[in-house]
Amino acid sequence: MTAPSPTGPPALRRPAVAARLGAMLGVCIIVCFSTGLFSHWLQHPPSWFVEPRSPIWVYQLTQGVHITSGVAAIPLVLLKLAAVYPKLFERPIIGSLPRLLERIATFALVASMLFQLFTGLLNIAQWYAWKFFFPTAHYATAFVVLGAVSIHLAIKLPLVIAAFRRGSMEAAWVPGVSRRTVLTAGFAAAGLAVVTVGSQSIPGLHRLGVLAPRSGRGPQSMPVNRTAAAAGVVEHVRSPDFRLMLDGPRKVELTLAELRALPQHTVRLPIACVEGWTQYAWWTGVRVADLAALAGLDGADLRFASRELGLYAQSTMASAKVRDETSLLALQLNGEVLDLDHGYPCRLIAAARPGVHQTKWVSRIGAA
């Protein structure tokens, strides 16, 4: 006897495959949105947000998961579009009011998803082919994605449930590539993206991150996002007239020699950046709390100003983090004087903070 010839569309076009790809993509979206929201609040904290003091790896975790779930979503969304794109051009294009609303929601979902994923990918490579401010646009569009997904799911939920039920009863083989093969390929592509990009957030696995923009190599074995030359600070920070200004009830000026003469402490902390990479190191320097006490700023939130210019030329630190014994104005990295590109002569280092808030080339500390 010969097996009956299966009928219907190839596996990639079947509703059961589209529904399962959608479920996998939905998990990535939820994880990416929730971790991205927390990471955004860490980088651009609203007034009500309480900056966490521990664990020291919290930003490493949230931003690492955010990046890996985002890159995992890229092959899934491409497969999902390949599975459903004939539906996108079905006629009538507009039709009734409910269909019009569905088409608008679908367009918003596809456009916002592609925008988020591919601008996010370019952002971690630090290649900006646009004029808008990426964090604000990325943050706002995340809510567009969430809203469009909610509307799309509300409209399609009965069809998705039916597709899952029907798919479980269908033969596992269909003309050409099987359903299992399509889903396995999607899962494998997502996993490969996670390993080759997401491993940059786990120091022991850096070598696997062959597609990650930061390898862990650089001065003193630490990556560098912005060099001293790019920041335009070389002349200032090399000057023998360098002074650290403490602006408080007591005005204090400290030379580099005087900074080095203060009690020094060593801590092991990570640098974790928005691009997803993380590197741990031993940092030695003066506790921020000791500097605050010198200026009479005990219990105050502090502002750290850098010699560089631009959006991230300064950062603030809540008083609770100021009192943390691991918060340092670092003078050394892994037992050596800070390299110029790592913030010489002094930089901020503290637990559970995005890299952009670990201000380099600090020249002034005052009340926030």
Task: Please describe what this structure looks like.
- The chain crosses the membrane at residues 21-43, 63-83, 104-125, 137-161, 182-202.
- Residues 234-365 form the Oxidoreductase molybdopterin-binding domain.
- Keywords: Membrane, Transmembrane, Transmembrane helix.
- The chain has 368 residues and is an alpha+beta fold.
- It folds into two domains: 11-208, Up-down Bundle (Fumarate Reductase Cytochrome B subunit); 220-367, Sulfite Oxidase, Chain A, domain 2 (Alpha-Beta Complex).
- Helices cover 46% and strands 14% of the residues.
- Helix 1 (15-43) runs antiparallel to helix 2 (58-88).
Keywords for this entry:
46% helix; OxRdtase_Mopterin-bd_dom; transmembrane; Sulfite Oxidase, Chain A, domain 2; transmembrane helix; 10 helices; alpha+beta; 10 strands; OxRdtase_Mopterin-bd_sf; 5-stranded antiparallel sheet; 368 residues; elongated
Topology, number of strands: 10
Q: Write out the strand line-up for the largest beta sheet, numbering strands in chain order.
A: 2-1-10-5-6
Report the mean per-residue pLDDT as an integer. 87
CATH fold name of the largest domain: Fumarate Reductase Cytochrome B subunit
Q: How much helical structure, as a percent, in the residues?
A: 40-55%
Name the shape in a single word. elongated
